[in-house]
Amino acid sequence: MLRHLRVLPAALALVLGLGVLSTASPAQAGTRWEAAHPRRDQVLDRTHNLQRRITRERREGEIGPARARALRMQDRRVRAREQTMARRNGGTITRAQQAALNRQENRISQRVGQ
Q1: DSSP label at residue 25
Q2: Could you tell me if 50 and 108 are in contact, meaning their C-beta atoms sit under 8 angstroms apart?
Q3: Per-domain boundaries in the chain
Q4: pLDDT over 80 (residue 3)
Q5: Residue 47: which of 21, 78, 22 has the closest Cα?
Q6: What pLDDT, in 10s, does the model give residues 5-29?
């Protein structure tokens, strides 16, 4: 009986430890695709975020419909470039390509709030 009491805390710690290890934080949560293509995921997250910003600025009247349309078109071009780059590299993009796409996103992003 006493031997079982010594094992119980160790077993409980093991179960609790595995429970802590198996829970994923929001930063780690995601799909297998996101894990396999982190650079593409980062670029695409930026394009989606920029689209939301354009929509919000348009709704609030900060930018007009023509400017919003032009910004969305520029952002879609960045997404198309990302897809073309990935297609040429077997589904991934390089760090240099990611940096180039991010620079393009930065330029568009600066125009959103003007």
Answers
A1: P
A2: yes
A3: 39-114
A4: no
A5: 78
A6: 455 455 444 444 544 444 444 455 5
